[in-house]
Structure formats: C-alpha cells, structure tokens
Automatic annotation (TrEMBL):
<protein>
    <recommendedName>
        <fullName>DNA 3'-5' helicase</fullName>
        <ecNumber>5.6.2.4</ecNumber>
    </recommendedName>
</protein>
<keyword id="KW-0378">Hydrolase</keyword>
<keyword id="KW-0238">DNA-binding</keyword>
<dbReference type="InterPro" id="IPR013986">
    <property type="entry name" value="DExx_box_DNA_helicase_dom_sf"/>
</dbReference>
<feature type="domain" description="UvrD-like helicase C-terminal">
    <location>
        <begin position="293"/>
        <end position="569"/>
    </location>
</feature>
<dbReference type="InterPro" id="IPR027417">
    <property type="entry name" value="P-loop_NTPase"/>
</dbReference>
<dbReference type="GO" id="GO:0005524">
    <property type="term" value="F:ATP binding"/>
</dbReference>
<dbReference type="InterPro" id="IPR011604">
    <property type="entry name" value="PDDEXK-like_dom_sf"/>
</dbReference>
<dbReference type="InterPro" id="IPR014017">
    <property type="entry name" value="DNA_helicase_UvrD-like_C"/>
</dbReference>
<dbReference type="InterPro" id="IPR000212">
    <property type="entry name" value="DNA_helicase_UvrD/REP"/>
</dbReference>
<dbReference type="Pfam" id="PF12705">
    <property type="entry name" value="PDDEXK_1"/>
</dbReference>
<dbReference type="GO" id="GO:0000725">
    <property type="term" value="P:recombinational repair"/>
</dbReference>
<dbReference type="Pfam" id="PF00580">
    <property type="entry name" value="UvrD-helicase"/>
</dbReference>
<keyword id="KW-0227">DNA damage</keyword>
<dbReference type="GO" id="GO:0004527">
    <property type="term" value="F:exonuclease activity"/>
</dbReference>
<keyword id="KW-0547">Nucleotide-binding</keyword>
<keyword id="KW-0347">Helicase</keyword>
Length: 965
C-alpha cells in the first residue's frame, strides 16, 4: 500500500522509526512489544488513523483496551492523529474502542436484543446476587457462610475464565457442579451475567459462524488488543476465534508488566504469540520516553537479573533525563520515621521547576510541581496485625497540610464518614424496638464530631421511619424498600449540604454507588433478613471498594496514595515506593486454593495462575518503579506497627544498584521554585453525553453525580423503559420485511419482557400486581405502535448506533435509534433519528419540557450525518406510553445551537465551575435535594449558550432560567 507523502511526513514528524514501521506494517499477525513509556498508545492510535487514511472503513476496526479509562485515552489520541491527517475525528464513532467485556456485551445484543437488558455483574455484585438467592442456590447460612459464597462465585468466574466446561465438574465434585448449575440457570432466568460468562457465551456464538458474509462480524477487518500480556484464557480464546475472520490482528504489550496472574492472566499468551500464530511480524518499542537514564537502567537491570529466562529479551534505552532527577533507596528504623520523611520530602519539592519537553528535545512548558505530581505506592494496604499500611503515610502528610487522595483496597469504611453512616444503619440490624439510648449515644459520640450541623430530631425521625419500613409492614403484600432513600434521608438529617471536605463528599458518594448496586441486585430490603444481609455485605465486601472511579475523574490536586495495581498505565513526575520489606514485597509463594478440582485446573496451576510466584512479584515491582518520570524513592522500615520482630529490607530493594543511586535522607533542593501548576490530564475530559447534558440543567447536580458519584434511588418500575425498548428492537430485528401479527407481538412480549425489580404476583390471574400490569401495558404499547406505525416495518430498518462526537476537545459518546428507509435493492434512501421514550406526554405540546430531549435528537442528527454517514432529514421523540411521535427541529441552525450548548457545558466542566442553580422548576424534580443548599450561585464565566430550538419554540437552557422564589 503506497503511503501519500503528506501522511508519511506527518508520521515521520510524530513517530520514531520503530513506531512508524509498526504503523505501516500490513502483516496479518503483528506483535508490538512495547516497554514502559515507549509510546505504545501513540503507536496504536496512529496505526488506527493510518488505516482510515488508506481507505479502510472505520466500522471495520475493533480495539480492545484493558479499562474504559484507557479506551477514552486511546480515542482521544486517535482523534488527534485523524486531525493531523486532515480527517474527521468523528470517524471514531463508527469504530469500536473499548474493553473486551463491553464488546462481548454489544455483540450479544446485536445477535439477540434480549441480551441488552441483561445486567453485567462484577465480582462484588455477583456476590450480592448469590447472597440474595441463598436458598434458591442451595446454600446455607451460619458460620462461614460468607466464605462459602465467595468460594462459589470465585469457582464460577474461574470456570469461565479458564474456559472449563461446567459439565466436566460433575465427574469430580457433584455438589459443586449442582450449585454452579443452579447459579447458571438462575442468572439467565433473572437477566444477569458476569463478565467471564459474557465472554464465554460470545465465544460460543462466534464458533457458530460458518460464513463471515451476512454474519454479525462481516464488517470487521482489523482487531487491536492493548495490554496483551494481561489476557486470560477465555479472552485469548475469544481473540483467536474472532481474529480468524479478520484481515489483521495487532497486539501490544510487555511481558515485564504482566501483573494479573493472581486473577488468571496468562503471560504465556505474549511469550508464545510468535509460535501460536502464522507469519508473525514483531516490532520492538524499546525507548522509554518517560523516565530518566538512571531509572530506566535500574529497572532494566532488575528485571533482567530477576527473570532471566521466562521473558522476551529487550535492550531498553532512555530518551532524556529532564531538568531534575533523583534516585534513592532508604531504610528507616520504624515506619513512623519513613512516613514522616516521605511527607517532608513531598513538602520540600512542591514548587520545584519541572520542564516538559517536545519529542525533538525543545522545551514544551515549565511549571512548579504540585501535589498531584506525587504518587506513594504500596504493595498491599490491608494489614492483619494493625491499622492499614497506608494510614501512617496519610496521617504524616495531613499533619503537614498536604492533601491526599487514596485508592486501593483500603476502602471508604476505613475513614470516619462512611464508618459513621454504617454505624447508624447497624442500629436497625436487630428487629427489636429501636433503642433510643443507644441511638442517642451514636449521635453524640459518632455523628456530631464529624457532622456538627446534624439535626437530632430529623435523625431520630429517619431511624424510626425506617425501622417501621423494614420491620412493621402495613399489609401482607411485599413492598419495595429502597436503601438509597434511607441514605438520602440520613444525609439530609446529618446536613451533608454543609460539608466542604472533598474526601468526605467523595467517600459518601461512593457509599451511594455501593447502595445503587445493592438495589439493582437485591431488589428490596423489606424484611429483617434482607436488611441484615445488606449490612453483612457492607461489612464483608464493601471494605474493598476503591475510590479509583471517583478520585481519578475529579480534578483534585492531591498526592496519590495507591496500590501498584491501581496505577497501572499511569505515570508521575515523583514516585515513592514504600514499605518495601522482606516477606511483603516480594510476598510469599502461593498456589491455587479454590473449589474447582485440581485435575481441571492443572494447566492454570502449572503456570502459577491464581497464586503468587517470585516472577509475578518481580513484574509488579518493575511496574511500580517504571511509573516514575524523574524522581524515584524506594523505602522500607524495620519496626512495623503490630509486629514484635523487626523487618529486614526486601531482596528486591537490596538488589538495586546504580551509580546515581543515593541512600541519604537529605531534603535537598533540585531546582529553583516557581508557582505550582497542575498538569493537564485528558482523563479529566467528560465523555458521556447523559452526564454532560445534566450540566445544562444544574452544574451542581452534575458535580454530585459525575464528580462525587451520588445516585438517585431506583424508581418503582426500574427497567420498564429498557425492557420496552428491547422488545421494540427485537421486533425490528425479526420483522424487517413485514408487519408482525398480534400473536407474534404477544409472543415477543412474553419471551422478552423482563422486570427484575418488581415482584410478580403469586396469583397473577386473579390478583395481578405491578409486574403483571406493567407487562399488560407493554403488550398494549407494542400493539398500538405496530398498528399506528406499520410503515416502520416495511423496507425500514431500525439500528441502535453508537457514536463519538468531537466537541471542544472532548469526545462525547452516546447511541442513536435510526430508522433507515431502503429501496427494493436494500440501498438506504433516507434516515430518521427517533428517540424512543417509555414516557407519556401531555396533549398540549407547550406543557412538556422539551429542552433536554431536543438537544439529544439534534446531537444525534449531527452524529448520524458525520459518523454514520446518513443525512437525517427529520428527528423525532416517540413517547411509547401514549404512542406520540413529535418532530424536533434538526435544521443546521438548531443543530449548531445544540452543539454550542454542549461545548458551553464542557468548558464549564473543565473550569470546575459547578454553581448551584436553584429555581422552582429545577429543584421540584431533583433527586439530590438532600445534599444541596438549593441556592442560586453565579457562574464564573459570563458566556451564555444559545437557546435550544424545541417543538414548542426556542428555549433557554434550564441552568439559566430566571430565578423563581
């Protein structure tokens, strides 16, 4: 394939020769071996953009990333490369760039829309699911029951991850087989699956394909896999099976950074890639652009000497030293001294001039180091013998007024605000009458010290109300009792709205997030047993919930205290790797101890999976030290809290040697000081359209939801809109050329209707309840839709298309419902954007607030034209409950106004401008009144977005509505 001079010149200016060679390679199977800091994301992004520049269709590209955060980063780099090539960034919307798990979920939904209403459970939610269905699954309560639940869920996930058939378990352990079989049947019947099973199911579906043509993978040609060293067996099976239909498989990784063997990752995938695939082309990116010469050489010498055999050979070099550098290993008498030195060193370095450089060595920018430039990394935070290992480091920094944000397994329940809420909830564990004296002691001793404005009368009122809700039902019928409402009422009574502590607000937001998952899995806490199980879950599992999802999306200038696993893929100017002591780093060797029979786990055991080996620990240590850009400090201490015997230095730290390595504790200055300034991080850019549009209503609501993580309570008919939409999609999937009959509609409703969070009646014929009435309503909605809009089924195809639009440096994601009109040859003649809503609207259009829906349809129309290549002539909101299809203006000016409104919101988010915008119409329907003072605060900027063109005329966005007292 001939490369145009313009594209070639652009790539030569932005890529190294090794990166360039990987980008233009057209081999079928490519391994890109990329060391830490070698620009693998840039290479991957340019490879994707290069394919587009050479005429490949963007929808033919799939790229798997390790996390969704990494996916957003890759998308932005692809957008940057496309822009430099003179191509539209909106091409990204037609590609798939995301996690392998999310692709499998999408693929299954494309095969059968029924899967789109399945909830995907992570490990914690799977445990919750089992807890809520103990008897159904044949599990018993009593001593050790939580460990038995964990053992079962681990066995289920390991079974799927290792690609072991469920039937094979029966021969060796009939009791475990029966439990796993019941779990499998129950999950499917209830509309749930976990990540491991979703991939397993997707593999089975792929293997059913006999011809790529006319299959659901027909459009795909190029498959990219990032972080390939951390792929597990079922993921590799999926990649291998899918790649058989691809023109190219391009994998990127570094065996030296394989750090997830303990949860099944198989480093052999990358080590043996060249042997398992035909005609493999290998490219090596071995220049570390991140770290100094001393750090690169130290890391390289360490990994080569520690893992001399089971690794791919590499000669890694550095690119530049930068204006400052420091490399030390330190040993302290006790952890208190170690923690104090770390805090003092951070304090001494704040404001130190830090120069960023361009790839050609010229100065890019200079600024003073600020708190978020520092990371304190720990092998493991939990301690059996005393307080968590990060506590003394955090306290030492706070004693010096250094802001700290923590992530890792320490959890929010190690900190006072969440501890307090949990203590209050525990007051209702016992079904006996609420003890007012105990509740008052809790208020005085635990609540008032951290919530000084708390309202005692409200506090007691909430406790009594929720005691009645849980233990004193007013009728024999089951009713919904939602813990999120309990949390909101408690936060109202404790006057959360008066809190200003960012860590406290984020902690309680994460508590709200945990409660959301409980509600979505547990359905209700309307009995002593169900309420007690919720508390048991919080006590046992939620200890391990991390702040990562919140801390790293909020622009908090604070020192990062974290486990090493949680900073994978990140980099910091200054890194402290602390607590590097013997028997802790490296940890002790261990092997698989799960419930699955060893004979079935033989291959996993032989490769050391689900356990710990010295090689695994060495790779983790290497990953830790290669997070550092310029300054790296490694430390440990002899006397440890809770231990009688003194610790010795780790063999890892003892083996580190370099001519530039120091062992003194001097707090010397490295450069002149200047104003501290945070470095721009593109991970702070908003991406989700649903959250960005909330800024248009109230910026403070956006902050509560998207920065702090607070959630609204699950609505009474949660899932009704999803199941209605899914049935509609399945009708369009199945009946593309004719109108379905009433019987076919009824059969589709019967086979697809799913409402997980509403209880079916025990006597649905004679005493139908909410579940049965909702089902009947969906049946009526579908029949009316088919009769009124029968033309939708005649030479029309409905698609739910994903998109990413480039708006003000951010990529805003969403999905569109399109009706595509085809001719007899099935060529597309025209397109309509339709936003299906399961709501009902008034007869008078003016009585409905159309602003949010109008922006959505207008943005979708732009995406249909620029991303999917269909010029949407009309846009509609279709309200399914009363079967109305209302036209929304989608002319050029209306679309431009909608885009400018989103741009205005993105600018405000990046400025961290989150004023409360109280007005009667906004606050009346707000889900977060308990957390807000409901004040009218000004914006920091005088910029005003244009009005939105709606079905009832031009309207000002809600956040700028005139204030109503």
């Amino acid at each position: 394939m001939e490369v145009s001079m313009n594209i070639k010149e652009i790539m030569n200016l932005n890529l190294t020769k090794d990166q360039y060679d990987a980008v233009v390679d057209e081999s079928r199977h490519i391994l890109c071996l990329a060391c830490a800091g070698s620009g693998k994301s840039r290479t991957l992004a340019y490879k994707i953009a290069y394919l587009i520049s050479q005429g490949s269709a963007p929808e033919s590209i799939i790229a798997f990333t390790f996390t969704e955060k990494a996916a957003e980063s890759i998308k932005r780099r692809v957008a940057e490369a496309l822009h430099k090539f003179g191509l539209s960034e909106n091409n990204i919307g037609a590609m798939f760039i995301g996690t392998l798990d999310s692709f499998c979920q999408k693929l299954l939904g494309d095969i059968n829309a029924r899967y789109r209403q399945y909830d995907i459970l992570d490990q914690n939610r799977l445990i919750l699911y089992v807890m809520s269905r103990l008897k159904k699954l044949g599990l018993t309560t009593g001593t050790g029951y939580f460990a038995r639940i964990k053992e079962l869920t681990d066995a289920w996930q390991t079974l799927n991850n290792e690609n072991i058939s469920l039937d094979s378990v029966e021969k060796y352990d009939i009791d475990l087989y029966e439990k796993l079989k019941k779990l499998s049947i129950s999950l499917d019947a209830d509309g749930y699956m976990d990540f491991s099973f979703a991939i397993n199911l997707a593999v089975r579906e792929l293997k059913k394909i006999t011809h790529k043509e006319d299959s659901y993978v027909e459009k795909f040609k190029y498959l990219f896999v990032d972080e390939y060293q951390d792929i597990n067996p079922i993921q590799e099976e999926f990649i291998k099976t899918l790649s058989e239909y691809m023109d190219m498989l391009f994998v990127v990784g570094d065996d030296d950074q394989s750090i997830y063997g303990w949860r099944g990752a198989n480093v052999q995938n990358i080590l043996t890639f060249k042997d398992r695939y035909d005609n493999v082309s290998v490219h090596r990116l071995l220049v570390n652009f991140r770290s100094t010469k001393a750090i690169v050489e130290t890391a390289n010498n360490f990994i080569q000497s520690t893992i001399p055999v089971e690794r791919l050979p590499k000669s890694i070099t550095y690119h530049a030293d930068g204006n400052i550098q420091d490399l030390r290993k330190l040993w302290f008498d006790n952890r208190e001294d170690e923690a104090k030195w770390v805090a003092n060193r951070i304090k001494s370095l704040i404001g130190t001039t830090y120069i960023e450089y361009n790839s050609d060595g010229s100065e890019k920018s200079r600024r003073g180091l600020t708190y978020s430039d520092f990371a304190v990394l720990i092998r493991g935070i939990h301690s059996r013998n005393s307080e968590n290992r990060d506590v003394q480091f955090v306290n030492a920094m706070r004693d010096l007024d250094i802001p700290v944000k923590t992530t890792g397994e320490g959890g929010i329940f190690d900190r006072p605000y969440s501890q307090c809420i949990l203590e209050i909830m525990e007051l209702l564990r016992d079904g006996n009458q609420l003890d007012r004296n105990v509740a008052e002691k809790c208020f005085n001793d635990s609540v008032l010290p951290i919530f000084p404005s708390a309202d005692k009368n409200k506090y007691f009122h909430v406790l009594q109300e929720w005691y009645n809700n849980i233990y004193m039902p007013t009728s024999s019928a089951r009713r919904k009792v939602y813990p999120q409402n309990f949390l909101h009422q408690l936060l109202d009574a404790l006057m959360l709205r008066d809190l200003t502590d960012e860590t406290a607000l984020r902690d309680l937001g994460l508590f709200s997030d945990i409660i959301k998952y409980i509600e979505q899995t547990y359905v209700s806490i309307d009995s002593e047993w169900r309420y007690r199980e919720m508390l048991n879950f919080l006590q046992n599992i939620a200890q391990d919930y991390e702040l990562e999802s919140l801390d790293y999306i909020s622009k908090t200038d604070a020192v990062n205290v974290s486990t090493i696993h949680k900073v994978k893929g990140l980099e910091f100017p200054v890194v402290f790797v602390v607590d590097v002591v013997a028997q802790r780093f490296p940890g002790k060797n261990s092997s698989y101890k799960g419930a699955l029979p060893n004979v079935l786990m033989r291959q996993a055991i032989e490769r050391g999976a689900y356990g710990n080996r010295i090689d695994d620990e060495a790779r983790l240590f290497y990953t830790a030290i290669t997070r550092a850009e310029r300054l790296l400090y490694l430390s440990g201490s002899a006397v440890q809290p809770g231990l009688k015997r003194a610790k010795k230095p780790s063999i890892f730290m003892a083996s580190l040697n370099h001519s530039d390595m120091r062992e003194d504790i001097e707090l010397d200055s490295l450069a002149d000081k200047m104003e501290p300034q945070t470095r721009f991080d593109d991970n702070e850019l908003p991406t989700d359209f649903s959250s960005v549009k909330s800024y248009l209503t109230c910026p403070y609501m956006y902050k509560l939801q998207s920065i702090y993580g607070y959630n609204a309570a699950v609505p009474e008919l949660f899932g009704f809109g999803q199941t209605t939409h899914t049935i509609l999609e399945r009708l369009h999937q199945k009946f593309r050329d004719r109108i379905p009959s009433e019987t076919e509609v009824a059969d589709m409703v019967e086979s697809t209707f799913m409402l997980k969070h509403v209880f079916p009646s025990n006597d649905p014929i004679n005493r139908p309840g909410s579940y049965e009435r909702a089902k009947t309503l969906v049946h009526e909605i579908m029949n009316l839709y088919v009769k009124t809009y029968s033309s939708d089924f005649c030479r029309l195809r409905q698609d739910e298309a994903r998109f990413e639009l480039s708006v003000e440096d951010a990529l805003i994601t969403g999905s569109i419902d399109l009706l595509l009109k085809e001719d007899e040859k099935r060529d597309i003649q025209s397109a309509e954007v339709i936003d299906f809503k399961s709501m009902e609207i008034p007869d008078e259009i003016e009585q409905q607030d159309w602003r949010e829906m109008s922006v959505q349809v207008q943005l979708y129309s732009k995406a249909a034209r620029e991303v999917i290549g269909q010029n949407a002539e009309t846009g509609f909101v279709h309200t399914l409950k009363n079967n109305k299809r209302i036209e929304v203006p989608v002319d050029e000016i209306s679309i431009q106004n909608a885009v400018k409104s989103i741009e205005w919101a993105v600018k405000g988010i990046l400025r961290q401008d989150f004023p409360m915008r109280a007005c009667e119409s906004n606050c009346r329907h707000c889900d977060f009144k308990a957390m807000c003072k409901q004040k009218r605060e000004p914006f920091n900027s005088s910029e005003v977005p244009p009005q939105i063109n709606t079905p009832s005329g031009f309207k000002t966005i809600a956040a700028l509505e005139e204030y109503e007292e």
